[in-house]
Amino acid sequence: MGSIGEPSTLPEDVTAYLEGLYDAGLDSLDAQLAALFESLDARGLLDDTLIVITSDHGEDFGEHGIFLHGGHYAEVSHVPLIFVPPVRFGVAPHRVEERGSPWT
Predict the structure, then answer these.
(1) Cβ atoms of residues 63 and 73 within 8 Å
(2) Which pTM does this prediction carry?
(3) How distant, in Å, are the alpha carbons of 47, 48, 52 from that of 90?
(4) 87 with 50: CB under 8 angstroms?
(5) Spatial distance between the Cα atoms of 92 and 31, rounded to a whole number of angstroms
(6) pLDDT band, residue 62 (cuts 50/70/90)
(7) How far is it, in rounded angstroms, from Cα 37 to Cα 31?
């Protein structure tokens, strides 16, 4: 088996474990964001707050024979960039499909 970032395979139970850790991290992040938004709302600040959410990279779980973030594939390089403007801006929610990367 290769080292992290080199093409390899892992037993299914190890891959499932890694995916479970990743999912647990996302669940924790969701809970922390919910607490932040509830706190802002309780203090009357949510509607006046610009919210920006992004990520530095994604993870590979065996796609292309790579685990974690050792490759330069879409699973790692395509990350969210979410803006939620203050309510007073009157911007309706919408999704922009264009990517700003020259590698897409």
Answers:
(1) yes
(2) 0.69
(3) 11, 11, 17
(4) no
(5) 25
(6) low
(7) 10
